[in-house]
Amino acid sequence: MAGESTPKGGWHSGRFAHTFAAIDLGTNNCRLLVARASIDGFDVVDAYSRPVRLGEGVALSGMLCGDAIERTLSALDVCASKIERNRVTRARHIATEACRRACNGGDFLAKVEQRTGLHFDVIAPSEEARLALASCEDLLDPEIPFGLLVDIGGGSTEVSWVRVLRREGRQGGVATDLIDMTSVPWGVVTLTESCVGGQPRAKPVTRACYDDMVERIRGDLRPFCAKHAIGSAIARGEVQLVGASGTVTTISAHNLGLKRYNRALVDGSRIGRDSILRICDLLSTLSVDQLTLLPCIGDDRADLALAGGAILEAVCRQWPAALVRVADRGLREGVLMDLMRQADREADPLCRSKG
Predict the structure, then answer these.
(1) Those residues with Cβ within 8 angstroms of residue 56's Cβ, 6 or more apart along the chain or in another chain
(2) 20 pairs with which residues across the strands?
(3) Tens-digit pLDDT profile for residues 276-290
(4) The CATH number of the domain covering residues in 139-331
């Protein structure tokens, strides 16, 4: 779907010669961004997001199901139309946990390419972590030496342990070094299906069930915490925590008292650990029907909100940082940054001569 344009020099070369696109096809959502480079990053030309639930039932059956495939193909038809309409010249599209797990993931993506012309790379958890970090780097404080980036997905949760450095000339004055990462095999979809599948929508889960969800996540986080002595670093005030996911942004919006979601207010906001635990405790007492009535949750997120709250609570109990920086950004933005840097390298005469 993406063609090529010829760099013309100056403002028409490198990243400024192109219109970029990135699709993040996750376990729960299909997300597209179309953007053009700007002085301090990029300007969004078009965007699209739909909760397709591609990974519905994968944790139990090991396969993508027919209804999920059809929902996703319909969403990708829309994405392909937007990419063509906006004359995108550079693109990369990625698929994550659902397609990694499903035995028919490869067949599904071949069907996607045949139908829409969109080619997808199935990326590893380590690549997810790298892209998420690239998108969130400028939210980190260069005065705090370490960072924990937690990205709660539909099928898994990626945690990155990061060294934070001051770097003049970089956006935000920050550079990062990814020390290590871990992928917890539980996200909002897989944890919901495993722990509360079949729960009546009108009935809240028991406290024992919710606590078991929290403990399940903490059990997977403890080895990573011990390996890097993260708890001790937090106690010394050397760690900043960044949360990147629909769960974190939704809880931030609730904390801000928003009646309607506003990305400009949420992205980059800070929320205290005590506020997170208070909101997660509230969510744990509500049924799905009650959760649909809360602003910024609604029908789209209600049946996954409990699992998301349990994962975030587990993170905050395992790593008691006083504040969490909220990121309404993720893999798409990381892909766009990669594409822009690649375009700059290809337009640089020195880089071309080395090649």
Answers:
(1) 65, 67, 68, 189, 193
(2) 35, 90
(3) 999 999 999 999 999
(4) 3.30.420.150
